[in-house]
Amino acid sequence: MSIFIARILIVAASVTHASASCAYGTHLSPRAEGAPIEVKTFGYTGAIGPLNWAALDGGSANVLCATGKNQSPINMVDGVFKTLTAADVKLQINDMPEGTEFENLGTTVEVVSKGGTLEVGGKTYDFKQFHFHLPSEHLDNGTSLAMEMHMVFQTPEKDIAVIGVFVDLDNGVAASAPRADSHLSAIVQLPPSSLATAAGTSSALLETVFSQVAKIASPGSVVETKPLVMSELVNILLAGSFQSYSGSLTTPPCSEGVMWLVSTQKLKIQTATFKKVRSVIGFNARYLQNTPGFNNLLAVGAQSAVAAKAAAAVPAAPAVKI
Amino acid sequence: MSIFIARILIVAASVTHASASCAYGTHLSPRAEGAPIEVKTFGYTGAIGPLNWAALDGGSANVLCATGKNQSPINMVDGVFKTLTAADVKLQINDMPEGTEFENLGTTVEVVSKGGTLEVGGKTYDFKQFHFHLPSEHLDNGTSLAMEMHMVFQTPEKDIAVIGVFVDLDNGVAASAPRADSHLSAIVQLPPSSLATAAGTSSALLETVFSQVAKIASPGSVVETKPLVMSELVNILLAGSFQSYSGSLTTPPCSEGVMWLVSTQKLKIQTATFKKVRSVIGFNARYLQNTPGFNNLLAVGAQSAVAAKAAAAVPAAPAVKI
After folding, report:
1. What is the CATH number of the domain that holds B268?
2. How many domains in chain A?
3. Interface test with B, best of A27, A132, A173 (most B CBs within 10 A)
4. What is the pLDDT of residues B1-15, one digit of tens each?
5. Mutual orientation of helices B297-312 and A297-312 as an angle, nearest 10°?
6. Which candidate, A121, A269, B152, B162, has a CA 20 to 30 Å from the CA of A149?
């Protein structure tokens, strides 16, 4: 059973108490170490799902989810983004030799940062956390990937930048051949250089993080990761470029003005690892939004429904047979 | 590049000509063999995507996409379906020793049936075709699967039944160990008995069909499959049970009264095969619909937006910072 089913049970009696006022609720600010984990009160199915996020707080905090014209995720096709090269970006992320907290927020699994900065467009953002969506939220030129990692950065003035990284599946047969009998610990110990150069190789960082995902199967649970070598990730990202556009948070309150940097580099994971993560996350991708600058698809859809209903008039639309 | 990007280019100038009046356009009726393939005029992104399907024909043919209260796909959780056992269902599908047509409709890849019947609930449906969605459209108790196969049946009176089968990824390392160096042809030749019993084994049927998916990368293209042993599939399905509910087509015109039978048996494919299919399909899953009997989520979402906008009043909702 996925965490989201469990969440629906938890949330069923308290959905009207959902708060969207806290920055923590946006996946932006990691909680203080040791503080209780606040399980989210939005979801991905039915009445607490993405099409109804605007209603969840009973006020207007989430209104942009239903009205914003620069919402995320989107289909990453030519024309909607501009390309930033590694030279346009200064990225530094602290290694975490002592590990860090890996927690289940009910809506995603998230790794708390131990510091780092992103300098882009004249601003310096602090690295807060990274979390995962399954399947990918953005489409890579029309294609859905297995997962997507979101690395969240914020300035002291609360401006937000997110690096999106597609997570693809290792090819299995081909890629696993040289290490068919190796254990996860051996993979984790692969030198960084082999990761950055071997296209078919699973990400050591992701395999290390996800090796403990079964320990946070329940919303609100947390585990300490093994050491995380973040410089490996930085090297991989800076070997590619970034597809940049101005979008939104993909979770309530769907705040806009978020600087998106979708990496052209993909991280790979083993299929077996993917399935372990899937057994915890289940499904947590918001539906695709309209091209930036165009009307929110909920408004477009509502208008279509009104027009189609009017056209249907009498007799009523055929219900059963076509 | 996925077929959907190509489709957007094709459709861009002709979206107002979209027709939803033909049964063929619903994925129900296979075309006559040799007849030209009609590339679909709906899509999965932006203004031709699922939130705006009701508007695509300029009339009311697709109105149920935006107003129907028994729409598909849904989250398959206890309470929304009733279980039918193999004893409740009589399923017979003709083998296709001479192969059959495998075609790219722009919105999916589809295999044309050479006959078969499904007897359930006192009706006899004829087997028309099967096609694929990526990722899965239904959720399996909260979990998104790699793909979903839809086997479409229809009575002479045009009543529709669809068997949905989740397609999961073969575990790669574990499952591939005994056949690390085998070629696809060897896998296809596995005897049916090993398929029905070996949990980690790829589906011979799917590997056979998909071995040619690269040949139909363009919308409107078609290829003849190798021989298809459909009895293997029937045996697998009848070894499990069916989660049944009354829903809709997951494509325009979103007609309701469709009898869904979601199999508890999953078919597996190799990760490498999945990636080949993905490079053609890209993404073609409609967003999750509301629990059967509850309001259409587009109506719910529109109402939420109106309420949230009213609550926002003046001053305007925060746009950039949170």
Report:
1. 3.10.200.10
2. 1
3. A173
4. 455 444 433 333 333
5. 120
6. A121
Distance (Å, rounded) from C-alpha A95 to C-alpha A89?
19
Give me the domain span that covers residue A245. Answer: 53-172+199-304
- Note whether residue A17 is domain-resident: no
Q: What is the pTM of this model?
A: 0.84
Length of chain B: 322
d(CA A292, CA A294): 6
Question: Which of A16, A144, A246, A277 should be substituted to probe chain B, the one whose Cβ sees the most B Cβ atoms within 10 Å?
Answer: A144
Q: Pairing state of beta strands A160-169 and A267-269?
A: parallel
Residue of A nearest to B69 (CA): A319
In a domain, A93, yes or no: yes
Cβ(B103)–Cβ(B109) below 8 Å:
yes
> What value of ipTM does the predicted structure carry?
0.84
- Say if A80 falls within a structural domain: yes
pLDDT per residue as tens, chain B (322 positions): 455 444 433 333 333 332 323 333 345 555 666 677 777 789 999 889 999 999 888 788 999 999 999 999 999 999 999 999 999 999 999 999 999 999 999 999 999 999 999 999 999 999 999 999 999 999 999 999 999 999 999 999 999 999 999 999 997 543 333 333 333 333 333 434 334 334 468 999 999 999 999 999 999 999 999 999 999 999 999 999 999 999 999 999 999 999 999 999 999 999 999 999 999 999 999 999 999 999 999 988 888 778 878 887 645 545 555 4
Measured CA to CA, the distance from residue B64 to residue A165 in angstroms comes to: 36
Tell me which chain A residues have a C-beta less than 8 angstroms from the C-beta of B301. Answer: 51-52, 54, 66, 298, 301-302
| Interchain contact, B271 vs A171, CB within 8 Å | yes
B322 falls within a domain = no
Interface test with B, best of A57, A139, A169, A322 (most B CBs within 10 A): A322
Q: Give the gap in angstroms from C-alpha A98 to the nearest C-alpha of chain B.
A: 30
CB–CB of A279 and B143 under 8 A?
yes
Is residue A46 within 8 A of residue B290, CB to CB? The reply is yes
